[in-house]
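To: structure subgroup
Subject: Chain for Friday's discussion

All,

I'm putting the inputs and outputs inline so they're searchable in the archive.
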Amino acid sequence: MSTVDSFFDAAEYRGAVPADNDWTAGWTLSSGSEAQEIEELKGTVTSDVTLAAGKTYYLTGDYTVKSPATLTIEEGVTIIAKHDNTVDYILVEQGAKINAAGTAENPIVMTSEKKEAGAWGGLHICGKAPINVQGGKGTSEIGDAAYGGDDAADNSGKLSYIRLEYTGYAFSEDKEANGVTFYGVGSGTSVDHLQAYRGSDDGFEFFGGTVCVKYMVATSCSDDSFDWTEGWCGKGQFMVAYQENEETLGYDCDCLMECDSNDKDNSLTPVSHPVLSNLTLVGNGNDGRGVRLRAGTEVELYNAIITGKEQPLTVETVNTENALKNGISRLNYVEISGVLSSKQNIYTNDLFQAAEGNRTNATFALEDKFIGTADGGKDMSSDSFFTATDYKGAVTADDNWTAGWTL
């Protein structure tokens, strides 16, 4: 092109980029270069590792964090489990830590290439807090890691604003992974704003320990939304379980909460005794159980809405029912869509109805699956863990804390 027009540079060739003057170098991305930059996560972590904000990583097998290492995951990180013949999961062993802190605007997302329940193995954390198995020590179902001990205040790190999708890989008939599994995790660990989305097996399971949780959502998990056993004595507030109908979801879902102490020996200590407030638990309309209290568990359950199951609240085993009858356990300000079912006929529906704030055969005006509350409630804020409320349920219409980071 002639340089008569001062806009044009002189050139004696056809095309835009000569071989000896690649003016695209350094500031553009070529096709496929983004995929080449995605780092793989696999193997053992023995020193501190940070996954940088906003980046994407592939999980390509087991990723095990060993003491004294800390795995830090910054806001906006996406971890994608590869769809191949390798089982993918993240395991944080005793003495190690995970500090994974997203935000509502930039949550951490742990997902899979295969968008189906059971596609990968989820997150497993092992702590040193008490459990009630013989000898006080256990071995994790996934990864065969030790857990349990005598440090109730053990600190395994921080989890905040994390969405875990399509977890629940079946290692065998007896071993299926959950969204997050807390093995003997202590109260020094900070846990808030987690969602388990369309997982196989449980959304969140607690094997003993004292960890406390807040702002938890379990969505359409095929087994139980929340599950505890082996002496969990933590606290929880603002907990949601929602199960889509089987006809549209493609699979069935079991309990909204399945609650045990130790099914082999109900008398082993510590006995499970979580204190929970402000729950909305919505079943998929089948003839199953909603909240199932059994195997010697104790519980204090306040400000709860339970609906969408033919048997919304069931109590079983002598120890569990006696604890309720004798006031060791409490069900107060709990509204259910049917009646309480008692296997031993020790703690009956009549006793439940007579307890403070309870209501049976209730109907609820919930919007967008689980948003809405019922009037009245117990203020739990005398315990500094709990936020003051005056309602039953987890999510108010004017403060939807699930917005922006959940599906």
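Points worth raising on Friday:
The mean pLDDT is 94.
Residues 314 and 341 are 5 Å apart (CA to CA).

D.
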